[in-house]
Amino acid sequence: MIPSAIVTIKELILWEYARLMSEEASGERDNWRFTLHNFEQLNSDKKRWSHILEEEVKVDPNKCAYCGSEKDLSITRIVPKEVCYFAKIHNTVRTCKKCNSSKGGKDLIEWWIFNGQDKIPRSVLAKYLKILYICHECNGTTDGCALDEYGKYNLVYLGYVFQEPCNSDKVRA
Ligand SMILES: [Zn+2]
Ligand SMILES: [Zn+2]
C-alpha cells in the first residue's frame, strides 16, 4: 500500500526506493514502518540515494541479475533502448541468454509482471528507479502527477519518459 500523501512522480520513485532500502535493512520490502522512515529521509534530503558504484559492489558479477544463472552471461540494457547520457551508466546488467531472449525489447516491469513474478531483484529495480528519476528530471516532470489515467500508482506508466528522446539529449544534440 502507498500512502495517499504521495502525489508526485518524485515521491512515487522515492517511495519505491525506500522499499528497497527497507528490504536491505529489515529483510522485508513491505515493511511499512521502515519504508515510511526511509521515504521521509530521502524526500527531505536527509538521506541520499546510494551512489551507483555502491550498488555495483553488491552485485555478483558472475550471476544473471534477473535469475541468478551463471551460464552464458552478457551485458544487456534494462531499459531496452538507448537512454540519455546522464542515465546511461545505470542502464546495464549482466543477463543470461534465457532471460535476455525472453525480455528482449520489453519494459522491465511489464516483462516481470508478465512472468507472474512479484519481486524484481533489488539491484535491478534500484537501477531502473534511478534511470526513471534522472530522465524525469531531464524532462522537468519530477513534480508531475504520479497517477496514471485510471488514477492508480503505476511504475510502468512512469516509463512513458523513455518513449521520446530525453530533453538533455535534445539540448546536447
Ligand atoms: Zn537469467
Ligand atoms: Zn535523461
Secondary-structure blueprint of this entry?
Blueprint: H1 9-26, H2 32-43, H3 52-57, E1 74-77, E2 92-95, H4 97-103, H5 108-114, H6 122-138, H7 155-158, H8 167-172
Antiparallel strand pairs: 1-2
Helix pairs in contact: 1-2, 1-6
Bound molecules: zinc ion (2 copies).
What would you say this structure looks like, in words?
A two-stranded antiparallel sheet has the order 1-2. 45% of the residues lie in helices and 5% in strands. The chain has 8 helices and 2 strands, in the order αααββααααα. It has 173 residues and is mainly alpha-helical. The radius of gyration is 16 Å and the shape is globular. It has one domain (9-172).
Question: What's this model, at a glance?
Answer:
The chain has 173 residues and is mainly α. The protein is 45% helix and 5% strand. One zinc ion is lined by residues 64, 66-67, 69, 95-96, 98-99.
The strand order across the widest sheet is 1-2
Low-confidence stretches: none
Cα distance spanning the termini = 41 Å
Q: What is the chain-wise order of helices and strands? A: HHHEEHHHHH
The portion of residues forming beta strands comes to under 5%
The count of β-strands is 2
**What small molecules does the structure contain?**
zinc ion
The shape, in one word, is: globular
On the 0 to 100 scale, the average pLDDT is 89
- Domain tally: 1
Helix percentage range? 40-55%
Helical stretch tally: 8
The Rg value, from CA coordinates, equals: 16 Å
Biggest sheet record: 2 strands, antiparallel
What structural category do the secondary elements indicate?
mainly alpha
